[in-house]
TrEMBL record:
Ranges for domain FAS1: 48-192
One GO cellular component term noted in the UniProt record for this chain: plasma membrane
Family affiliation: Belongs to the fasciclin-like AGP family.
InterPro entries membership: FAS1_dom_sf (IPR036378), FAS1_domain (IPR000782), FLA_A (IPR045003)
UniProt keyword list: Cell membrane, Glycoprotein, GPI-anchor, Lipoprotein, Membrane, Proteoglycan, Signal
Protein name from the UniProt record: FAS1 domain-containing protein
Superkingdom of origin: Eukaryota
Amino acid sequence: STLSTHKTKTKGKMKQLLSSVSLLVIIFLSCTKGMAQSPAQAPAPSGPDNFTGILEKAGQYTIFIRLLKSTQVGDQINTQLNNSNQGLTIFAPTDNAFSNLKSGTLNSLTDQQKVQLVQFHVIPSFLSASQFQTASNPLRTQAGGGSNAQFPLNVTTSGNQVNITTGIVNATLANTVYTDNQLAVYQVDQVLLPLDFFVTPAPAPAPSKPKKGSPADSAAGSSDDASVDSSCAKCAGNVMFYMSLAFVSFCYLP
């Protein structure tokens, strides 16, 4: 019986040992498999929202979206949003604002003017609604610097109302379409038309006539005097020739 009991204890210990070994093997295999797998990568930070996508989602900006795409300014805006820390502010005219334009206005613009028109609605920095209260005029737009007389864009505020003037158009900032502290999109009730597109430059002044006694006038007088002197000299030469001919003839008369 003692032998039998010893064998039973030995079998029990062997089972415990096998169980422990099996558990260690399983743990080892699990660790090895986990090390073989590539570590999980952290999700890449998401970039700013696509600008034209924001307008499409908001609705009522079909014509402005079409201009953004045809002029490729929309692609430039998305590139700037991904590479600039200053952000952007965009004034988005509604389809109703475009319908208020004089018939044929857009078709009368050249391709370059259409690009400038869209860029005139873009400020190369982020402006929150409250920052319009202290903004310096004229605002600098993508179409040109603030000191450029061709593209003046001035902002005035009255309480919470923001008014925008271009010298041709007086518009009102209706509401905020989108803002994320990098991109601000504001709805405007008028298309912002640059002054330079519709003002005919003054004609160049006609050259003035030289005053009497001026260098030009003196030069003209000198030329006339030279002509007179030349004519007189020619006449004197002719007279001398004929007088010599008459004298010779007189000497040889019989």
